Amino acid sequence: xxxxxIRVPKTAKAGDAVEIRAIIQHPMENGxxxxxxxxxxxxEIITDFSCSYDGGQVFSVxxxxxxxxxxxxxxxxxxxxxxxxxxxxxxxxGTITTATEQLEVT
Amino acid sequence: xxxxxxSANWSRRGVLAGxxxxxxxxxxxxxxxxxxxxxxxxxxxxxxxRQDGKIALKLPPLAETGNTVPLTVTVDSPMSDxxxxxxxxxxxNRNPRPLIAxxxxxxxxxxAEFSTNMRLxxxxxxxxxxxLSDGTIWQAQVRVLVTVGACDSLQLRY
Lengths: 106, 158
What we know:
Strand content of chain A: over 45%
Number of helices of chain A: 0
Helix content of chain A: under 10%
CATH topology of chain B: Immunoglobulin-like
CATH superfamily of chain A: Immunoglobulins
Number of strands of chain B: 9
Low-confidence stretches of chain A: none
Radius of gyration of chain A: 16 Å
Mean pLDDT of chain B: 83
Radius of gyration of chain B: 21 Å
Helix content of chain B: 10-25%
Distance between the termini of chain B: 53 Å
Oligomer: heterodimer
CATH topology of chain A: Immunoglobulin-like
Strand content of chain B: 35-45%
């Protein structure tokens, strides 16, 4: 399972815009690089990323090879109730990586 | 005395022009041109008319490496229940694949803003387009100078 790093603040006030940052370790091979033998390395990317919270979607991305290795996203969530913030990455083979962080809303 | 054979009559200018043309040929393997970015845009948004504005695209004016170019897109929208940004799609007009990524904002998003890192194959324009909940499409464009492109010779270092 690839490494993920997520930053969700521990606490937030209700109604606040909370900055979320998420990164996953992944080469995002774009299909144009060559290996040491000169043969092309096939495309290997993450195709979908999504973040959900409190029963709704916050932010989701359709990724293409035009994004950098170790794709990083930061975005803003509207804090409403305490609960888990779920993250989900799907790669082109269908492998799913998930992560969860708890957000405390006061 | 040394005799120089000038029969080929290679001028310095001619040789340099030849080298330049050769380098240019080598450097353009699979560049997408404006036709392919236009194709990618019409595949994504159809032929809906687009207006300039509402989007702030934050990119470095000069990127040393095209492998990770930080990008921040902010769309001017209240993100209320009725007036929202549905999605933002980013294109780069000289990348081999002009479509960079498509971002969707769900009901729990507080602002229509995100940051990410993208690849650029060379100096080119980055175009961001936002589709709002009322169906209108807005666009913004920024030029980025790239010293070493993501598809160029230093690729094995990264």
